[in-house]
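Discrete fold record:
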Amino acid sequence: MMSPRTPWLRLTWSQVVVMLGFALAFLQLFHMLLLNRLEARNSSMRQTEAPYYLKKDTQTVYPIIEHAIKSSRIMDASGQYNIIYDVMQSSAFSTNDTGLMMKQYGVTLVTHCSVNHIHHLIQLSHHWQGPVSVAIFIPQEYSSTVVQSLLVLHYCMPHLRKNISIHLVYPMTQSPLSVQFPSFVPEISRCRDFHEVLDTVLQQQFRPMQNYAFEGQSYPNNLLRNVAARFLPTDYLLVIDIDIIPSPNLFLSFVDFARRTSFATETGSLDAQVVYVVPVFELQRGVELPQDKSSLLQLWKQGLVRPFYYDLCWKCQRPTDYDTWRNLTSSADLHNQYEVVWKDPWEPFYIGSKYSLPRYDERFKQYGFNRISQVCETHIAGFRFAVLDNAFLVHLGFKTQEGYHQGKEMEQELNRQLFRKFKEELKIKYPESARRCY
């Protein structure tokens, strides 16, 4: 009489194979878990490294910055400024399928600043998932400090290092930028102390400076915009001021919007003659940034948020039609819900194609008519303005008359005269256009 077999001996080969498959999957999952824990541990260690490692890492990138500053400068068209492109270069997109899709439908945030606003890059990089291109204007006496600060930014903020390209502009009348290895690097015992060090090095040192006040040196805002917009890894760009923050997920939301909209067209792409307006607001200082449209609307009801330039120049933003925008249904998706016909003196911020948008006129410097001149030409050139429903921009702080520098009125009057000349020139540049800037 045969003894009964134990249950596991009665398994078929197919059952054995299934069990082995489950066992292999479990081992792979366990292996991934161990790798994740190891990576988390290494990441934690990197955040608490001694100064030696910080110095070692900055020494790796320092020669690259030094070479760019010493040998890569070119002169602008006016012969008044030196330009150094890609002192630090974004590595945001690869050439794989995802990278190509991001290039085709993605948006680069284009901005500019003077040295006293470099610290805004920290917050900006946390709120924008895509590439950023920034042009920085550097007076002579601050060049060494700026380079040092960029090195610390490079080390302590990996996401900033990945996404942000930095270009430098300085007057031809001053000596070439000096390059010096960061003297304050050894003071940083951990990257978590970085924000405190940055505040000491940047904000306190530059705090006495006011916007557009550079000891006789004119701030070339439109040149800076063109410099930052010249070499972009995406087909679309959004030009903003550095103290303006995009709504969370705007980058990825626009990628999805552009892909969906493009697939629905005969050409398979967005209309190159349409720009997509992003409504802009002012946020009272000290108030937390809204995370979505619903929270922004709630802050609006409380008087903590208001449309941009609401007190200073309401007619400059009113054509956006904030009442219509406020009453649109809130959702996670973007749509171009309505179009606005441009009229003077509307100054919208918008996403557009880098291949078709007009460049900024670099004769405009200091305060007044620098942005509106480009918007005016965009209108004359036949573009249409479509407002996005679930996207917004937030300026940090309410705009007040007291926040402006001395000389603003004189600068504005000079640029007003230039703007009149500029509009006459557009009639010659676009002889077939029936549109005008009024």
